[in-house]
Amino acid sequence: MNKRANTSKYISMLSDFGWKLYFGREEHKENLINLLNSLLEGEHVVADLTYSNVEEDGDQPYDRKVIFDLRCVGTGGEVFLVEMQLQNQDFFFDRAVSYTSRTISRLPKKGRAGNNYELPPVYFIAVLGFPIDLANREKYYYSAKIIDEFDQEVLYPKLSYKLLVLSNFNKPLAKLDTIIDQWMYLMKHLDELEGLPKYLDKRIFSRIFAIGELAKLTPEEQMSYISSLEQKRAYNATIAYAEKEGMEKGFEKGKLEERAKAEAEKLKSALELKKIGVAIENIAKALGLTVEQIEKLK
Length: 298
Prior knowledge:
InterPro entries: RpnA. This is Rpn family recombination-promoting nuclease/putative transposase. The protein starts with 15 loop residues before the first helix and ends with a helix. Helices cover 42% and strands 15% of the residues. It has 298 residues and is α/β, with parallel strands linked by helices. The longest helix is centred in the C-terminal third of the chain and has 57 residues. Helix 6 packs antiparallel against helix 7. The chain has eight helices and eight strands. Strands 1-4-5-6-8-7 form a six-stranded mixed sheet, sandwiched between helices. A two-stranded antiparallel ribbon has the order 2-3. The protein has one domain. It is elongated and about 90 Å long.
């Protein structure tokens, strides 16, 4: 296929097609299990996963439908909501809380006659392409629970948020200290590689390279992948244009505001000079105002 031009050997993880290929298919769920276990090391072990419906209607007809990128349930009933969001989004944390709250409200309650409020753990995992803390451009991995603000004690360990900020991750291959580092490097650079680098754990990542070759896709799948890349490029181009337009409009607005401010300062000075008896003609000449403007000042 000639349409493979401008594409690489391996399918990008950061495309809708690639994300679902590597992490959203039953036959490839071992990749998602490995990713989750890397994030939850020392906290929880995911033995197996079952994929759930990604769409969820609201309680009322007018409620907004929620669509998750991936939603899975572990063998112990724990729920995983896995999202990829590359474009900056207002109120992202509100969205994360909304998603987990909706999920929790729908979970079946355990115990006799539903009187027991015990819930399974809920994990919200997000891969982000934008910074969430402009004051900290170095931090690329966030892990949050409900804690006591005074002594940092975890009060409720069953609700957990794990955020990977790709825009803040800039480590080279030779400096990948953790498995999380390796995952993040692969997410950013898979479509630039020619094979599995020696710095990546082969036990975890060899499967990614085995299934990720573009040449292994059917012609229909290749078309779907290329289409998803084109949609992503078109969206990025639209955002870039809108940002440029916004900057230009903001610049023009700023210039107008500065001019208005300067004009107001000149009029203020003109009034003060007029009050102390300076000739109007002299004020107009010195400040670049008209005689009519100064005569109107009171």
